[in-house]
Amino acid sequence: MQFPTLKSYLNWAKGHAPKGPFAFIFAQDDIELTHTVAHHIKLGFPQTVVLADPPLARPADLPAETAFVRRAAKSSADISQEMNAIISALPRQWIYCCYNGEYLFYPFCESRSIGEIIAFTTEERRMTIPTTVVDLYAGNLRQSPDGVDVTNTYLDRLGYYEQIRQDAQNVPLERQVNIFGGLRRRFEEHVPWEKRRLDRVALFQAVRGLKFQPDFTFNRPEFNTISCPWHHNVTAAVGSFRAAKSLRRNPGSRNAISSFQWPGSEQFKWHSQHLMDLGFMEPGQWF
Hints:
Layout: E1 2-3, H1 6-16, E2 22-27, H2 33-43, E3 47-52, E4 67-70, H3 80-89, E5 94-99, E6 102-105, H4 114-123, E7 128-138, E8 153-156, E9 161-166, E10 172-180, H5 182-186, E11 199-205, E12 236-240, H6 242-249, H7 251-256, E13 265-267, H8 272-277
């Protein structure tokens, strides 16, 4: 399926798309795009949608059931306008969003579908599953100069911290945190301040009046919380090559960085248990 605009896809989806959850993948290039789509199909998303920056063409090996939509503008990192159109068009549906080269993991995702974790979360009266972005990177930049290698992937096992989020008047916000670490912390001199946070609300239920903001938060405070008031909820992680790609594409950082490896590096096992063991996500009451 191919659509010339997001509006045309959403008009089609209202009457013809399978019931969600929906995975919307924003493709800024073709690096690992098909692999990204395949990962999310394997998780059980009934509908995967690629929103592609022009002039990116539909890859020949993209699964036929994946919708391919052309974005209106070239390489805009701010996806809020498009996400708000999606929220408005698909009320009550669960929605996940990411970029190509990013991979959703949740506890026990190897044996439990995305529908199962959403059903559990709904029973807990939650409308979001908070996610932490985990920067992934190639183990050898000589062999993988773009910083991406899914066969020899590393992550930082330490060096993370969180801060209580505050409002404009410096008042702490209940159950909201900013998380930092990974490549964005180690090479922070090359990363704008607004790009350093690792916390993200990437999986949520659309409701009327909800607004997705450029920093991956929402206009409703409860959607930005890490858990409900009475116990810890299930959380997820997004393994992301995006920071590695950016650091390798920027001439200043590319010339300054010969390797992403450091004593805190660890080879990624591409398994949810690995991310739980390192504390990037937790099952809450889901076992």
